[in-house]
Amino acid sequence: MAQSTETTDWVSRFADEVIEESERRASGKAASPADAPVVVVASGLSPSGPIHLGNLREVMTPHLVADEIRRRGYAVRHLISWDDYDRFRKVPKGIAGVDEDSFLEHIGKPLTSVPAPEGSAHPNWAEHFKAAMTESLAELGVEFDPISQTAQYTSGVYREQILHAMRHRGEIDAILDQYRTKKAPAKQQKNQQKPVDEAELEAAEGSGAANEDDGSSGSAGYFPYKPYCGNCEKDLTTVTAYDDDTTELTYTCTGCGFGETVRLNEFNRGKLAWKVDWPMRWAYEGVVFEPSGVDHSSPGSSFQVGGQIVGIFGGKRPIGPMYAFVGISGMAKMSSSRGGVPTAADALKIMEPQLLRWLYARRRPNQSFKIAFDQEIQRLYDEWDKLDAKVAGGTSQASGSGGGSALPGDVAAHARAVGTAAGELPRTPRPMPYRTLASVADITAGHEDQALRILSELDPANPLASLDEVRPRLDKAETWINTQVPADQRTIVREEPDHELLKSLDEPSQQSLRLLLDGLTEHWSLDGLSHLVYGVPKVQAGFPADATPKELPPEIKTAQRSFFALLYHLLVGRDTGPRLPTLLLAVGQERVRTLLGE
Ligand SMILES: [Zn+2]
C-alpha cells in the first residue's frame, strides 16, 4: 500500500478540506478513517464526440484528491457521470464513419440513441466515444465508478427527484429568473472545452441556447423537465399541461407534430434541464467535491445557480474549484478520423502516463498549462527525468543534503505521477532520455536491430539486452517522431559524402575533422562522444580537452558552434539536427568515417 505523500501541496489541502466537509455532513469527526463515511467526489463528461484532452482536467482534479484521501485510509467513490442522455447537439466535423449530412437527422435525440460511426464496435454514439476515454483513464491509473445518465433516467432512478422538481418548479423558476437577462450566456455544459471559434459561434446563438439549459417554457408556464418525443425521439417537445396530483403530463413535439399525455410517476423517457439536473445529482449522490471549468465563475453559471437549487433537493453544493483551461502546443494536424480534436489517447501515444499525470499534479487547478506535442516535449521529459533521479536518490530537502535537492511540493507531485493508492504504474525499466530515443527512432526509421545496436553503444559498460528494456518510452518517442515532427525537421543521414564541401574546407576545419576521427574509437559512447565533440575546438585553440568554460575565452563557443554546423552538414546536410553524440552513435562509426571524408 502506498503511503500518504505527507506533504503540503494543493492536492493535500483539498483532501483536508474534503474530508472535513464529508465528516461535517455526517455525524461529525470519525474515530478513524475506517469509521468515516465514504467520501464522494465527482466528474462529468459528455460523450458528444471525441473527448478533448483539455477535459481530462475534469477527471484528473478529483482523481488526484480522491487518491490522496484513499492513501490516508478513507473509502472514496470517484463518480464519473457520463452525460450520455444529453441531446445530440450537432454533428462534429471530420469523424471517420460519419456522413455529416445523414447524421443531421439525429440532432435532438439522446446521445445513446444516435448510431455509432460506421465500423464502430460499439452500440451507439455515446458508447463509441466513452470507450476511448475509458481506455485512456485505465492507462492513467484512474479508478472510478461510471454512471450512465441514460441508464439512470430510463430506469426511473430519479423518479422522486423529478416529481419533486416539478412540484417545486415555481421556486426553481424564480431562482433561474434572477439570472435571466436579454443577452443570456452561451450553453455552458460545465466541462466542455471548445476551440475558440466554436465558443464564439455558440455565444452568438444567444438566449435560445441558455433556455435549453434552464428547462421548458411555454404557455403553460415553466417546467424543469423535458420528455424526449415518443415518435421521433427528439427533445423538440413542449410541456403543455401538468397535474401535480395525478402527475399527468401532456406534451407536443414541434419536430414531428406528435403529442401525448403520460403519467410522470411511471414515465422514464425524459430528463431534467441541465441547470436542475446537475444540483439534483449533487444531492442524490452526496457529492462533496466536484470541480468545473473556469467559465463557471460568472453569475448565472450552472455551478452558481446549482448552488441555489441544490437546497430544493435537500442537498449541499460541493467544494467546487474552478479549473483553468489546458492548452495543447504544436499538435500536428491530426488525421481527419479524429475530427482534429486532441484526445487523452493521442497524448498517451506520445508520452507515458506518468508524465501526463505529472503535468496535472504539479499545477494548481487555477493555473493553466500546455501539453506539448511539439519539441517542448523533449525538454519536459528532461525535467521529469531530473526530478525522478533526485527523488530516487533520496535527495529531498528534508534529508538535508543541500544543493540539487527536490522541493517537498515537487516530491509530492512526483509521487502522485508515478502511482496511486493501489500501487505504482508500470514504468519503463530503463528510462533512457526521451530525446535520445526520439533521435534514434528518427534515424533508424523502424529498424529495430539498428536501434538496439545504437542504444547499447550509449552505455557500453551496461548494454541493452533487448528493446523491451526501453519500452514503452521508446514506442512513445517513435510515435512522436512519426506523427508530430514535420518532414522538414526529420533527420535524413546522407548516403554519400559531400565531396564538394569536403574539398572546399580550409586547413583548420580539416584539422578539426582529423581530431574527431582520431578520437572516435576511444570515445564511442554517449558520454565519451560528448566529451570529444566539445573538446576538439578546445584542443585546436591550445587548451586541454577537459578545460572548463571559466578557463576558456568566449571565442571557443563560436568555434564549437561552427564545428557542430560543419558536422551536421557533412552527416545530415542541414545546419542542425539531433544532439551530436546521439547522432554519431546512430549513424555508426564506419559511416561517420566515410561521411567525414576519411
Ligand atoms: Zn417528435
Name a few traits of the molecule:
598 residues, mainly alpha, three-stranded parallel beta sheet, 24 helices, 11% strand, elongated, binds zinc ion
Task: Write a short abstract of this structure.
With 598 residues, the protein is mostly helical. It contains 24 helices and 16 strands. The strands form seven sheets. A three-stranded parallel β-sheet has the order 1-2-3.
**Count of alpha/pi helices:** 24
Structural class, from secondary structure content?
Answer: mainly alpha
Q: Compute the CA-based radius of gyration.
A: 30 Å
Strand content: 5-15%
- The mean pLDDT is 89
| Low-pLDDT segments, ≥5 res | 183-187, 194-210, 398-403
Shape descriptor reads elongated
Sheet with most strands: strand arrangement: 1-2-3
Distance between the termini: 59 Å
The level of helicity is 40-55%
Bound molecules: zinc ion
Biggest beta sheet summary:
3 strands, parallel
Strand runs, count: 16
Would you kindly provide a written description of the structure presented here, covering whatever features stand out?
- The chain is mainly alpha-helical.
- The chain is built from 24 helices and 16 strands.
- The chain is 43% helix and 11% strand.
- Strands 1-2-3 form a three-stranded parallel β-sheet. Strands 7-8-9 form a three-stranded antiparallel β-sheet, with no helix packed on it. Strands 4-5 form a two-stranded antiparallel ribbon.
- The protein has helices at 10-25, 56-71, 100-103, 125-139, 149-154, 159-167, 169-177, 196-205, 207-214, 274-285, 302-309, 344-350, 353-361, 376-392, 408-418, 434-444, 448-458, 473-484, 499-504, 507-519, 526-540, 555-572, 580-587, 589-595, and strands at residues 39-45, 76-82, 145-148, 216-218, 221-223, 225-227, 237-242, 248-253, 259-263, 270-272, 292-293, 322-323, 326-329, 369-372, 419-420, 423-424.
- It is elongated.
- Zinc ion binds at residues 229, 231-232, 234, 253, 255-256, 258.
